[in-house]
């Protein structure tokens, strides 16, 4: 019997990447549409990638997670400026999101939107449960490196690169960074994240954030040693910056931590995530909006 294999997709990450890759330098009028005037440029990329992933990785279970509106995020409750610097989404992208959710429902793919939690949180909650309750593997498809904190022996992130897709495992992470995936949160706590408006510790950059966590294990570990004589002289020049930025670092860690304990997802029934490709059904759904997607069938 084939072991189950779960695919979790960060919906907006894939849809928006597809949109901006195919809309660069174009006006809204120049984007591809169907005969009814519905935009399709991002949908084509989204569904072609989805179908390819399901086939290439022998996926048996799949879900697409969607973000809530920024102002509805649980993180806004304790950080009002969280993601405040992001631009509004283009209307053609919003329209394609609405079409995308309808198509996913038609072809029988589970979708996750769990207010006030973000897509990363829903992915984290499901990935953690799958890892604990199943013998099969979990693949997370996203270029968002925040999700690296979820990697373990049964969880791999598929990351797109110019050279092709990388199946990035927890071993790859440990070899590259010299810490465990969960310690990635502590690195982000010091570094911050401009795209999400997470401040980090001002003045502490990439050259020092990772080595500090490698040496002291966590943000808390850094601050426990900060005033002691044993604190490494190599980081003395960051002492004042760390002291001033303590509150900011702690808040940044809270913001960067993916919430895996979501009450609505605690008793997830994974049978509802099962997906078997029905080519006729899928093709019919795509034809309804004149979307040309190539379906691949693996040879036995």
UniProtKB/TrEMBL annotation:
Q: What are the protein's UniProt keywords?
A: DNA-binding, Exonuclease, Hydrolase, Nuclease
Q: What does the UniProt record say this protein does?
A: 5'-3' exonuclease acting preferentially on double-stranded DNA.
Q: Which residues form the 5'-3' exonuclease domain?
A: 3-276
Q: What is this protein called?
A: 5'-3' exonuclease
- Which species does the entry assign this protein to? Alkalihalophilus sp. As8PL
Q: A Pfam family matched by this chain, by name?
A: 5_3_exonuc
GO:BP terms for this protein?
A: DNA replication, Okazaki fragment processing
Mind telling me which InterPro entries this protein's record contains? Answer: 5-3_exonucl_a-hlix_arch_N, 5-3_exonuclease, 5-3_exonuclease_C_sf, DNA_polI_H3TH, FEN, HhH2, PIN-like_dom_sf
Entry-linked CDD domains: H3TH_53EXO, PIN_53EXO
């Amino acid at each position: 019997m084939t072991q189950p294999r779960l695919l979790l997709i960060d919906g907006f990450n894939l849809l928006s990447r597809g949109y901006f890759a195919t809309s660069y330098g174009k006006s809204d009028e120049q984007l591809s549409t169907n005969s009814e005037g519905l935009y399709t440029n991002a949908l084509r990329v989204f569904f072609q990638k989805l179908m390819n992933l399901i086939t290439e990785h022998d996926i048996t279970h799949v879900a697409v997670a969607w973000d809530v509106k920024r102002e509805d995020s649980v993180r806004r409750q304790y950080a009002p400026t969280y993601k405040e610097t992001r631009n509004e989404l283009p209307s053609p992208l919003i329209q394609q999101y609405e079409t995308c959710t309808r198509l996913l429902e038609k072809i029988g793919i589970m979708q996750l939107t769990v207010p006030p939690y973000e897509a990363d949180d829903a992915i984290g909650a499901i990935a953690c449960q799958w890892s604990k309750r199943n013998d099969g593997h979990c693949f997370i498809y996203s270029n968002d490196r925040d999700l690296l904190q979820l990697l373990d022996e049964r969880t791999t992130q598929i990351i797109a690169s110019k050279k092709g897709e990388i199946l990035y495992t927890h071993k790859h992470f440990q070899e590259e960074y010299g810490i465990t995936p969960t310690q990635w949160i502590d690195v982000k706590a010091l570094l911050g994240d401009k795209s999400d408006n997470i401040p980090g510790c001002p003045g502490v950059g990439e050259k020092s954030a990772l080595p500090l966590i490698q040496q002291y294990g966590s943000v808390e570990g850094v601050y426990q040693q900060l005033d002691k004589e044993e604190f490494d002289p190599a980081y003395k020049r960051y002492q004042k910056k760390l002291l001033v930025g303590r509150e900011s670092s702690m808040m940044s860690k809270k913001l960067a931590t993916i919430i895996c304990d979501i009450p609505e997802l605690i008793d997830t029934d994974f049978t509802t995530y099962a997906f078997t490709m029905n080519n006729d059904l899928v093709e019919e759904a795509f034809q309804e909006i004149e979307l040309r997607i190539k379906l691949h069938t693996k040879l036995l």
